[in-house]
Amino acid sequence: MSHSRALFIPVILGTARMGRRSLHAARLVTEELGKCAGVETELIDIARLPLPTNDAGEAIKHAEFSAQITRADALVIVSPEYNHGYSGLLKHVLDSCLKEYIHKAVGIVGVSAGPFGGTRVIENLLPVMRELGLVTIFWDVNFSSVQRAFAEDGRLLDESFTRRVDKFSKELIWMAKTLRHGREQISRD
Ligand SMILES: Cc1cc2nc3c(=O)[nH]c(=O)nc-3n(C[C@H](O)[C@H](O)[C@H](O)COP(=O)(O)O)c2cc1C
Q: Does residue 2 have a pLDDT over 80?
C-alpha cells in the first residue's frame, strides 16, 4: 500500500442557514482532521456552491466540487438536524455527483439543539450514503445541545468533543486507507 500520498478528506458543511451553529462543528472537525499525519483536508461550504435549482443530479455538476470529490479518499458530512432530516440543499449538492463517491469512506457528524446530537439525521443520511456508493464508518460525532458546546464566536466550550472527533477521525482514516488500497490494488473482475 502506498503511504507517500496524503489522504484527502474534505469536510462538507451541510447547511446554508444564516447563523448556523454547524459551522463551528465543521471548523473544529476540519482543524482536528488537519492535525492527523498524512491527511489533507478542507471545508466545503455548500452555501458557496452556486448550483441552479431548476434541475438536479449530474446535470448541474459543479466542476470544482466534482474535482474535490474525485480527489477525495473519504468525506466528512457535518449535518444539522432539521425536523429529524437533513437540509434539502445538502441533498441537492450531494446529488450533483455520482461516480466520484464510489468506494470512498464517509463519516457523519450530527448537530442539533436537542439532546440527541443529530442521531436522527444521521440515520436518515445512511441509506443516501449507500446509494451514492459511499462506505459509512461505524463511528459518528454527535454535537448535542450545540448552543452549549460552542460560544457565539465559535470557541469550543466542551473539550470532550475534541476527543470524540479524534476517535472518529482515526476510524475514518483507517477506512479511507483500506478503501484506497482496494480501489487501487484490487481488481473488480
Ligand atoms: C427548520 C429547523 C428544524 C429543526 N429541527 C430540529 C430537530 O428536529 N431536532 C433538534 O434537535 N433540533 C432541531 N433544530 C435546531 C437545530 O438543530 C439547531 O439550529 C442547531 O443549531 C443546528 O442547526 P444549525 O447549524 O442550522 O444551527 C431545527 C432547526 C431548524 C431551523
A: no
The domain spans of the chain are 7-183
- Region 27-40: mean pLDDT is 98
pLDDT at 4: 80
Which is nearest to 32 in space by CA: 185, 173, 175? 173
Q: Which of 81, 121, 125 to mutate to test ligand 1, by most ligand atoms within 8 A of the CB atom?
A: 81
Pick the CATH number of 7-183 from 1.10.645.10, 3.40.50.360, 3.40.50.300, 3.40.109.10: 3.40.50.360
Q: Among 140, 143, 124, which residue's Cα sits nearest to residue 172?
A: 140
For ligand 1, say whether the CB of 142 is within 6 Å of any of its atoms: no
Global pTM?
0.97
